[in-house]
Amino acid sequence: MAKRVTLKNNKGQTIVGLLNIPKGKPSFPAVIICHGFKGYKEQLHLQTLATELSESSIVALRPDFTNNIGKSFGKLEDIMFSQELTDLKSIINYLVKQKFVDKKRIGLVGHSLGGQLILHYAPTDKRVKVLVDLAGPIYRGKGSTNLERSANNQMTEAKKTGFFYIFSKKRNRKYKLKLDFYFDLLRHKTPEQVKKIKVPTLIIHGSKDKTVALKNSRGAYKLLKQPKKLVIIPGAPHTWRGKDDSRGKYRKKIDRLTVDWFKKYL
Question: Residue 160 falls within a domain, yes or no?
């Protein structure tokens, strides 16, 4: 069972998370699971990963980042990548204070925007010992994700209004976003950060991902130092839930690869 927890970020805003604590005698290594753009802590592929981690004696914390669609402070319209980076530091600060956590064994896993987040953040914090990037983008402004394509296609009007829109097929609705969010992403040169990463990093990407181009993961892998590994899952889409995957075969495989990486290096 996951426990609901709350903490404050640098602005005093509330971050809500779900914490899976393993059975047994502490202290345990711990992993923070970072959701993607329009993501939230209860998504199935994050839930099952948290369960797998805790069953392998690893604490798993799934936060909703601020200004997203989860339960934390703010609304998606105000999302900023720079604030998510600051949120992540606050989350790590919270986690290492827990008595059941081995503060010398902290890992990060991120999906999509959460993948970019952990790659960009890791070189700035020596407490981070292991990474798993799940289809995270590193190339911004080049049309390699749905977000860039939406912003670029609407740029003329967006410069007049200060906003652009992105459509969610799953929720059948449009989300309003500040153009400053897009420009904030462009200011963060994640490939340069990836070059600075010094911890073991696993990258996983589905071959049928239409949201984040595979070239992002291939590019990140080339920039990384050893130990590193790139796994491309044949047929897997962006959130691992393809039409041919009623039994969760992609998700189960990715969960296993992720947990095994943390068990080996964390």
Answer: no
Cis peptide before 27 (omega within 30 of 0): yes
| Residue 179 in domain | no
Tell me how many domains the chain contains.
Answer: 1
Residues 6+ apart with CB under 8 A from 11: none
Q: State the DSSP string of 146-173.
A: HHHHHHHHTHHHHHHHSEEEEEETTTTE
CB distance 69 to 78 below 8 Å: no
Would you give the end-to-end CA distance of the chain in angstroms? 23
Could you read off the pLDDT of 70-101 as tens digits, one per residue? 999 999 999 999 999 999 999 999 999 999 99
- For residue 90, give its domain range: 3-139+190-265
Give the type of residue at 169: K
- 12 token code pair: 């005093």
Q: Which two tokens stand for residue 27?
A: 């202290």
- Give me the CATH number covering residue 68: 3.40.50.1820
Worst-scoring range by mean pLDDT, 41-50, 115-124, 162-171, 217-226? 162-171
